[in-house]
């Protein structure tokens, strides 16, 4: 697959997982500094990895969130907590993932993620009202 095809395929998955609003904001904020990086993310993260057949998007979301909890990457974690719903992940599954992460990532990481998840839930609920 050439870079253009990989980019297009990656952009389709990126939009499906993260949503058009998020992707559009990213594209609108392209600068000379981040343009090549955004292209790289779209081609490789979304075009090569998220398109692989070995795992569905639901499972990839759960794995991604677990790794971001362990790495303490709050901004990226918040984005993927929101995006998980686009992949069919439920609030109960997220709760169980966070509970499970307390064993392997530590209580402070799980506690911080519980608060972050509640913030995401509250923001999503406010949008529905």
From TrEMBL:
SUPFAM superfamilies for the chain: AhpD-like
Pfam families named in the record: CMD (PF02627)
Carboxymuconolactone decarboxylase-like domain: residues covered: 36-118
Gene3D superfamilies on file: AhpD-like (1.20.1290.10)
Organism: Pseudocitrobacter vendiensis
Top-level enzyme category: lyase
EC number(s) per entry: 4.1.1.44
Xref: NCBIfam families: decarb_PcaC
Protein name, UniProt field: 4-carboxymuconolactone decarboxylase
């Amino acid at each position: 697959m050439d870079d253009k095809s990989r980019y297009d395929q990656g952009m389709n998955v990126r939009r499906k997982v993260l949503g058009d609003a998020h992707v559009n904001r990213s594209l609108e904020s392209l600068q000379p500094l981040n343009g090549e990086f955004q292209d790289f993310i779209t081609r490789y993260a979304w075009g090569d990895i998220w398109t692989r057949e070995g795992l569905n998007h639901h499972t990839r979301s759960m794995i991604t969130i677990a790794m971001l909890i362990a790495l303490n990457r709050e901004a990226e974690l918040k984005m993927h907590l929101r995006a998980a719903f686009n992949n069919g992940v439920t609030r109960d599954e997220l709760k169980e993932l966070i509970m499970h992460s307390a064993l392997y990532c530590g209580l402070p990481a799980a506690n911080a993620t519980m608060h972050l998840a509640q913030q995401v839930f509250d923001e999503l609920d406010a949008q529905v009202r």
